[in-house]
Amino acid sequence: MGDIREHRRVLLLVAAFSGSPDALAWARAQLVAAWGPIALESAAFEFRETHYYASTMGDDLHKQFWAFRELIEPASLPHRKLQTNQWEGECAQHVPATVPRPLNLDPGYLTEAKLVLASTKDRDHRLYLDHGIFAENTLFFHAGQWCRRPWTYPDYQRADYHQFLVRCRDYYRQRLHER
């Protein structure tokens, strides 16, 4: 029988996408106020791999990642997904928008070995966590690089995303050594 150990804290990461720079700025402000300072921030990448969101979010979408300074308990992921869903709904009331859904927020966490994203949708490769929230192991780190799974969304297979996630992994490893 293996020894039961508490899981190490993980790096909180949020992927936000929108067609409105104002919505992204509003989301960033909400996140920082609730979850603390951002340690790493990506560029606003063009979100061009799918038109799935066009009917509710419009065209010309951009995705941005924010990695937070404070490491978190991985068990807090369901609560964080519920909170981001609430903020998505509030955004439409606070930011002028011409689309029904001006903002999408996807919280997750990163470890040395994997990127996990929260979802409200059940699929064969997702594990149920709590309160209607599932977890997906979206990417794994192997032989010095991020690698995809068969179910990895096309945008998460991009080299520019992976470059940012390598920076996040390096930051996470640095934080672990500081602890």
Total domain count: 1
How much helical structure, as a percent, in the residues? 25-40%
Counted beta strands: 9
Rg, nearest Å: 16 Å
Structural class: alpha+beta
SSE order: EHEEHEHEEEEEH
Question: Biggest β-sheet: count, sense, barrel?
Answer: 9 strands, antiparallel
Which runs of at least 5 residues are low in confidence (pLDDT < 50)? none
Characterize the overall form: globular
Mean pLDDT: 96
Question: Separation of termini?
Answer: 28 Å
Number of helices: 4
Strand content: 25-35%
Short description, anyone?
32% of the residues lie in helices and 32% in strands. The chain has 179 residues and is of the alpha+beta class.
SSE inventory with pairings:
Blueprint: E1 10-18, H1 21-35, E2 38-41, E3 45-46, H2 54-57, E4 62-72, H3 77-94, E5 104-110, E6 114-119, E7 127-130, E8 133-142, E9 145-148, H4 159-178
Antiparallel strand pairs: 1-4, 1-5, 2-4, 3-4, 5-6, 6-8, 7-8, 8-9
Can you describe what's shown?
- The protein is of the alpha+beta class.
- It has one domain (10-178).
- 32% of the residues lie in helices and 32% in strands.
- Strands 1, 2, 3, 4, 5, 6, 7, 8 and 9 form a 9-stranded antiparallel β-sheet that branches.
- Helix 1 (21-35) crosses helix 3 (77-94).
- The longest helix is centred in the last third of the chain and has 20 residues, at 159-178.
- It is globular, with a radius of gyration of 16 Å.
- The model has no long low-confidence stretch (mean pLDDT 96).
